[in-house]
Amino acid sequence: MDFLADFLTRFVDKLQSPTLGFLIGGMVIAALNSRLAIPDAVYKFIVFMLLLKVGLSGGIAIRNANLAEMLLPAVFAAVIGILVVFIARNTLARLPGVKPLDAIATGGLFGAVSGSTLAAGITMLESEGMQYEAWAGALYPFMDIPALVTAIVLASIYAGKQKRDKYLKNEDYLRKGEYSGMQPVAAGGYSSEPGGIAGGSASQSGGPANNRVKIWPIVKDSLQGSALSALILGLALGIFTRPESVYESFYNPLFRGLLSILMLVMGMEAWARIGELRKVAQWYAVYAFVAPLLHGLIGFGLGYIAHIATGFSPGGGVILAVIAASSSDISGPPTLRGGIPKANPSAYIGASTAVGTPVALAVGIPLYIGLAQALMGGG
Amino acid sequence: MDFLADFLTRFVDKLQSPTLGFLIGGMVIAALNSRLAIPDAVYKFIVFMLLLKVGLSGGIAIRNANLAEMLLPAVFAAVIGILVVFIARNTLARLPGVKPLDAIATGGLFGAVSGSTLAAGITMLESEGMQYEAWAGALYPFMDIPALVTAIVLASIYAGKQKRDKYLKNEDYLRKGEYSGMQPVAAGGYSSEPGGIAGGSASQSGGPANNRVKIWPIVKDSLQGSALSALILGLALGIFTRPESVYESFYNPLFRGLLSILMLVMGMEAWARIGELRKVAQWYAVYAFVAPLLHGLIGFGLGYIAHIATGFSPGGGVILAVIAASSSDISGPPTLRGGIPKANPSAYIGASTAVGTPVALAVGIPLYIGLAQALMGGG
Amino acid sequence: MDFLADFLTRFVDKLQSPTLGFLIGGMVIAALNSRLAIPDAVYKFIVFMLLLKVGLSGGIAIRNANLAEMLLPAVFAAVIGILVVFIARNTLARLPGVKPLDAIATGGLFGAVSGSTLAAGITMLESEGMQYEAWAGALYPFMDIPALVTAIVLASIYAGKQKRDKYLKNEDYLRKGEYSGMQPVAAGGYSSEPGGIAGGSASQSGGPANNRVKIWPIVKDSLQGSALSALILGLALGIFTRPESVYESFYNPLFRGLLSILMLVMGMEAWARIGELRKVAQWYAVYAFVAPLLHGLIGFGLGYIAHIATGFSPGGGVILAVIAASSSDISGPPTLRGGIPKANPSAYIGASTAVGTPVALAVGIPLYIGLAQALMGGG
């Protein structure tokens, strides 16, 4: 009962956070038929700003990290980020009625990392007196960015396959500009890469005669899209230049505010598309409850391997588990909105903020700390 | 003579404030035929940001206020806000040559509250050693927002009536999209709600056969417009969620700067339309001199009733009078620009900043403090 | 060898600065065929914000300066700013293969002032213990703004002449809207003033019958363009109003961040146009090496005249030389991008940041300090 009360307290707190508050505000505004709208040019620029900031902060963290020492945990973090998306692709996406693009985006969000869940985990580690490597917090971009890139690429591959299947069934169908994918095109989407681009790539890679989708053109096309371009540009600028001054004075302080506006826009769209989820909401609830615990245990297992192999600390193992269990409410939404515009934000944001994050906080963190103390003798 | 010198000093100070400086800068730029322009998408976004901030700050103030204790003064504040607009509607708007939409917008601005006049009033109260309730400053959104909403609704009702009258005179006239109201459509307007929308509502409410304008569809339509939607969304987010972090780090610090850009745009437009005012400027001058004193006395009277009924302090009564006397140079312009785009900003901003605010500061505040000390024994 | 090592260190440091980092990032993004783009409305607004800030900071510096005392050095600063552009117009612009608009823009950038070079100069003066007037730093807008205005006006005159020459050769050519100048129109340019406007002015000034270009209509047209309008508006607001609060809270803090985005856009464009420079890069390298030293010596000479005529301090003379030697990486790029959109940013930014600024820092500053100590006995 204590757990339930804790869970509900965190849930209500979340509802009042600016992030979720603006999302719900956007839904209410849309439900009341308001004519409020964010101009498309401004919206696209906001997404660009958010993604550049996510990339910059990851790049700066990597530049300042001791790469040699953190090599194995960093590789494990990247493996987890990629694996989480493939798990969603092969579980949630195959459930009856669940749209694969929605499921892939949800997997991307659960693979990405929540800074606030990470902070909660570190706080609890310290109150338990467990030691951890100072650079353990810098593992997050190694998981965050691979997860988001994997999700966008898998979505492009899926959309490309869909298009080719349609093409084979009806050759007349594929008239230029008419095709709009399985899902309705997201209104005001930052870009229509997955559908439009993967189509182009599929035809480059041989068209209807060749029955296999070539992967590399789709990956390349995803990376050239505006969402991943901005993310990777920020990452590269963070690693190779010294953007700290402009990051601290501009990109970082504007981030939360611009995110609140993005949340408003996503709330308006979520309302318009919430009906799509009515019949499959239970699958998202189950996934969002089980996934953080499963991902966290994978993270804990790999942390344990690193503990044995290289003496990675028990506290570091807990941090790896916590970032694996967390789902992003910051870097994820803008990236997925830009990179998989056809995925329904009601699905992935709803699953993450309403269930996934409270479970990771209230169940996950205490579980991993207890396991570490039992198995690795931390504390 | 002292009063005149004081008045002139404040007037010249005002001219150098960023708000008025940018307004005049915009007028000069327009007069010199510059091709400088703020892109429409950015302009709309700036108005959205300003209105959301006005709503948020009002909502946060209301959430933190002791509603039970301040109930009567808050109701009085709302009554004053609404009343001020009706006074303008039935005096200024009926003077010869004055355009009713300009007069209604002016009434809205004089009903709305100026934070700097309020601050000046509180400073003077404290230097007089008068006591006042700590929450008295939080009365401002209860007057500010009703005044602005009333002005926009009255403008919509007026525009709806105008359109129906025209329609009855000339049924062929009302071709789709052609009608543009009595006043020229404001260039680059945030939205054309009053005209366009009220028309739609008027025809919903029975069209030419029914000779009465139905009020509710117009009110609903005004509330769904982008201006009031943003204002009320901000208010609701301020009351029901905890947006303080994003308010303090984003909406509040950007406010003055974005307002300066809006002022520039309004200055450019004001120059283009200043000729409209040449024949009626004296009416605005008279209104702007008398109105702050009249509104302040109404506020003082209601504060006196609250003093007798519930023990509202004399200092609180002065604050109610000061916010009634003040006219908004912050929340008002963007809201009216968004909600009544056909009203001429030269009229309402000119009346408020050039005459109304100096009168409220130099005449109003000392008058109400003197009255309070004489009648209620404050100090 | 010490000098070369110093030069190279500064060069590598520059490459990691946010300004140049984002420029190179934009080039890389463009080279990789990314579809990342900044919406045009946002881009235009960013240029407006940057130019208004440059004008505001100049205007505030002038308002706070002791104009009577600094009259002669200020006049000298303006003379240098204008002269530098005319030097480029009559040297670099006449070299084989160099496009005159690129050369004029480069001259404008070398005439404008770099705040960081100025700061480096002041720091070195202080470490040498040389005295200088407290207002000497405020000389920069007197050189900066005349140089940029001169460059834009000379570009307009050149474009107007080009157009008239074409017109005389082929009267049919000049169909409305078709003419696009010698250079390809800059993609996403803030405005196409020089070409379009100078044409209009040229025909006002007599058309083909009159074989001389009238200067005043072109100057007036340049000043009415969006770039110089924003710059001069900011200057006037800085001088005549008190925009410090909004400058400190809005325009100044946003400047570096918005500049980084402009640099990204200019990098993307620079990549697309870098091929134009292949055959003339050596001329830019020679100009960028010689020009800072020549300009600095002119500044030093005029400072020496002021020293003899009015007792201007030796340190002040060094500061005049340093701002003459410096080339702008802050105020220049947005102004030139807005005012001479057809000029190739690879030319002027490349020349300034890759060669000009390191030369001014590593060669210029020590040279002028040594000269001052030898000739004027400073220190």
Question: Describe it for me?
Answer:
3 copies of one chain form a homotrimer. Chain A is globular and about 60 Å long. The longest helix of chain A has 31 residues, at 345-375. Chain A has 15 helices and no strands. With 379 residues, chain A is mainly α. Chain A has one domain (16-162, 212-376): Na+/H+ antiporter like fold (Up-down Bundle). Chains A and B meet through helix 2, helix 3 and helix 11 of A and helix 3, helix 10 and helix 11 of B. Chains A, B, C: This is Transporter protein. Chains A, B, C: Keywords: Membrane, Transmembrane, Transmembrane helix. Chains A, B, C: InterPro entries: Sbt_1.
Please supply descriptive tags for the structure shown above:
homotrimer, 379 residues, mainly alpha, Na+/H+ antiporter like fold, 15 helices, globular
Short structural summary:
The first copy, chain A, is built from 15 helices and no strands.
